[in-house]
Write a structure and sequence with these properties.
There is one protein chain. Strands 1, 2, 3, 4, 5, 6, 7 and 8 form an eight-stranded antiparallel β-sheet that branches. The protein has three helices and eight strands, in the order ββββββααββα. By secondary structure, the protein is α+β, with helices and mostly antiparallel strands. It has a domain of about 100 residues: Pleckstrin-homology domain (PH domain)/Phosphotyrosine-binding domain (PTB) (PH-domain like, Roll), CATH 2.30.29.30. It is elongated. Helix content is about 35%, strand content about 35%.
Length: about 170
């Protein structure tokens, strides 16, 4: 059985944090390991806007891989149910909106990778078949981060000088 090669690049749909919710954005995001940095390239607004950021790998605080739900759909679903039930079925529109948002909540399951640091938190949404690549990329990133932190700690540790004993 051969060992999988480390994955050094990953692409997907960018995400945005709105309050405590993480929602998909428009465009494309590419995460690439370049030396001791994570390069984050985002192409937004039909490719008219491009942002490139570099995050030193030793500054990464955590990685999150999540299968989530759009909980805000329930906030749309609940009032429509109340309006539909309150009109005794006469207002068909609210019933359709209720059913559509309930189905969307149950069926749509966004998956994302979030990489956290004190200054930058890139979020990449991916399709279900891409989960294995996301996990490989995360393992590669964690291995490089551990190496970078270990070398940073060993460089910061002062070497002991021999004491001069006069006897």
């Amino acid at each position: 059985m051969s060992k999988l090669q480390p994955l050094r690049e990953l692409s997907g749909q960018p995400g945005d944090r709105i309050g405590t919710a993480i929602v998909p954005g428009r465009g494309k995001i590419t995460l690439q390991l370049v030396g001791d940095c994570l390069q984050v390239e985002q192409k937004l607004a039909f490719g008219l806007e491009t942002k490139t950021s570099y995050l030193p790998i030793q500054h990464i605080n955590g990685i999150e891989i999540a299968d989530s739900r759009f909980w805000w759909l329930l906030w749309i679903c609940a009032p429509n149910f109340l309006l539909f039930a309150g009109s005794e079925g006469e207002n068909f529109f609210f019933g359709i909106v209720f059913i559509a948002t309930l189905i969307a909540f149950l069926v749509v399951q966004p998956r994302y990778l979030a990489i956290y640091s004190s200054r930058l938190a890139p979020i990449l949404f991916f399709a279900a078949p891409g989960r294995a690549n996301v996990e490989r990329f995360s393992q590669t990133l964690l291995a490089i981060a551990r190496q970078a932190q270990a070398s940073h700690r060993s460089a910061a540790t002062p070497t002991a000088r021999p004491r001069d004993h006069h006897g």
